[in-house]
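Page 47, continued from p. 46.
Same chain as before, 1022 aa.
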Amino acid sequence: MADLTDALPTGANTPTRPSSPTRRETILSLVEMLLQQNESIGRGDNQQPSFEDDRDVPTVDEHLQVVGAEAFNKFQRRINNLDKELRNFANAARQLGSSVAILSSSFHLRERLAKILFLFRENAADLFPRKITRLAREATVVDPQIKGRRKKPTTPRRSTRYQAPQHVATPTVHENLDPESFPSQLEALAVDVTTFLHCLNEFPEFTDEAVNASIDSFEGDLKYWASCLEEYAGQFRYPAVQRYIHDLTSEMGEHIDSITSTLSMFIEIGVPTIRFAQKHGATNLLNLSTVATFFSAVTATTLQFSFDKIETRVENAVNSFWFASLVFSISAAVNSLLGLTWKQAMYRSPGHRVPWWVLIWIKRSPLVFLVMSVACFSIGLCCFAYASGQHHITSTITTVFTAFTSFGLAAVSIWFASERWIFLRHRGKKWLSDVLIESKDKFLDLPGIEKTYDVVHAGHDSIRNSWKFISRKTFETAHKLSSLSSDSSHADNGDALPFHNHPVDLPTPPRRQTADSIPRSPIDVEPKGNPLASMPTSELEGGGDSTPTPPTKGKELWRNAIRSVKLRSAVASPLGMSMFGTPRGEPRRKRTTSSSNLTNGDRKNEPVKGVLRSRVAALVPKLKSLETTQDLAAHQALVRHLQFSPDGRYLATSSWDRTSVIFRVGDPFVSHRILAHAQGFVGQVAWSPTGNLLLTKLGRGIKVWTAEVRNSNNQYRKFNQSHLCPQDGVCKKTIDRRAFVESITWFPGGEAFISVEGSDVTKLDLNGKVLDQYHFGRMKLHDVAVTPDSTRLIGVGPLLASPTGLQPSKSRAEKRLVVYNMDTKQVENQTPVLNDVRDITLTQNSRSGLIALVSYENKAPPQLWKLELVKDRDNNSVLTARLTLRHTYMPKVPVDFAGPSYFGGKNNELVLCAGKGGDIHIWDQESGALLHHVRAQALGGDLTCIAWNHAAEDPFMFATGSHDGAVRIWTEPAEADMEINDDDDISAPFRTDNPNRSDSPMAQQDHESLHTGENQSSEPST
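Result:
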């Protein structure tokens, strides 16, 4: 069966022979497949998989190629299935009347789907050239009629070759579609889908709400996508936009599957229902035509008796009425046939596109003409009874009966018309009887009417009671007379029968006892309503001994017990052997150990290709040596965010327990300060670039904390010294914001910071003064990063509405990565993404330049984007920034990622991310290769965030937070544990009597001054 793949240009599935690059790519692909097969055979099937080796899985690029090709092929199958259902629907709809509109709309929809598939295939061929074959434009199928006109513009075609009807023919793509036409094609598809739905609703006999809902949802998303894509004009050749368009295939495929399934149900249920309703209407018209034809014959026959009598006025009236009846009956018959032909016509217009007088003439005139014909014939018949000189009794009876039947016909006709009028007026909420009852109640409420009604009702009741009394007395009298006559006749004949108190013995044939006759309970229950059951057995059976006596209650109990045991044994014996007889085997679970637990002998360390060989070979052993060295009970609730200070000596945490803890980095980590907040969850911490200030983010506020540690000479001292000044850990400023604060970020110089609030980014100084504000349009920003030169912002977040104000009906909203120029206050570049983007981190190195690490929610892996400066398309003298995708850091298995991703290692050469289940992935930033993976079973808890200590280069160090409030420190374990003196100042990380806890700025300052006084008084003794 043909599908839309056939509608595409030839060569869509197989490359053409003159195309040498395609042949070369095919040969290279075959060689690559053979080499991979040989490597898999040489390794063997029983080798334990390794997460650090890339030999057992395809490369990241190959994986993306395979996944992308599979997504497009799935989308192509979905469109082909919808095309098949549309073709089946067109074949089924040809049997319906007024089906030309639905046939035309379905074919136009199939044509539009072919064009959409063509564009998506071209887009996929650009993204995945090794898996999706590009279409050969020169081999595009051309319409034979267009081709014929080009060859012979003045000569008509004489070909006798059969051409399929429009609804059956396979749609073809006649034009060279450009990717820039994506918005217009999606908008046209929305129009075609809506037209198809309107044509489908033209059949009033059946309405499927499922089809309407699915198509309306698809139309809304198509218009939303078209409106959003219009802002990327001229960028449809960019890989980022192409990747977003390719991701739309999954969203669009769900709509297509829904429409396909609902359309299939409509074909099975809706089309037969419509066909039955149309057939029923056609049958009514046919019956009406038959009756009208028969009545016209009757009228013509009776007219023969009066057409020559024209002497009196009555005779002329008879001829006039009968001639009129003949005309009306013939009109009714002809109009019935006309309406029948119109209902069954395939090319008739829908009802709402036909003038009202045409609809009335076709639908109502046959019945009206037939009623008028009957009325004229009846009046003429009455006149004929008088004109022909019939007896006055005959004339009177004819007139009375004619009036009676005419009154009934008029009453029923008025009832039918009233029912339709009441239904249309009250929209089906009331029936005619309800309206009559309401009218009756209103009439009785009129003054004087109620009393009259009561008098009439009382008279009616008295008459009815009198009639009932007379009827009862008459019946009793007749019954007495009949009983007296029957008694006298019996006494005369002497045939009175004797009366017996006992029933007569009747021979009872022997019966086989069935399962129904077996008592289900040992208690005998007498049947109700049977007089024979209450008699003794001897009297019932005539005292004979042939029938055995019923068993006693003891025997019945014994039989029931035996029967229950047998049933239990019969049910349990075959099942019990299989369930309990065979011993159950021990459960087997295939465990995969962490890569850090494998020995060097079980794995071959394969170096990474090219210039990365030595660097990655040195990184892998250092990453494998990392393990949990400290487990800190930092919070009593979920740990929301972590961050090491720029010098690497402190670790700040935030939690939903309304506290933020500053740890002193060491072995072990020591709780240095607990920053308490009066209300609200602490969602984020941010160290200043110099490390002397710390920001904590609340729901609608920001707190600025001092982190300075100085000695008496106003110089910075290490934290292992005991004398601290009052500025350490004091809330310097609480900045209240009106809108919800999504995130906070420092400017590179540390003189100010920004607060992300909805669609706006506010620049604030340390005192909370608003320095500037930047608006990002219809975006809801989740996070913003500042470039090192403080000229641009990169914001990430979803789109609140399309440029035309549309919202998605079912699909996910579009998300964007936006580059904003703070000098011009304009958006320089915007990149669409479909996954839920949450965080962005910027860094700059000499090898890659300025790069951005973007983190997503759920199973979407982090991505590395490069920020490049390019010449503006309109003005070459102006440089604008543009984001280009460099890497997608793929895990070995799908993982729900938690929190933002981080750069790590020396010169930010690593990328690490935590999973909600406890997995930790570490990739090489430049190559995208997965260097190390820590399994969830090694952690013992779900992770919420992760942070890297950039100051610790040898050994590496990072921290993770979890749902239970714990903070775990990961580093290389020391060879020997350091001995700690009990009298040393470094003690447990948390103490309940910690004197450094502060709940408010005032209390903190008072406590610090008191603490300083105690230190000064103790110095002489020291």
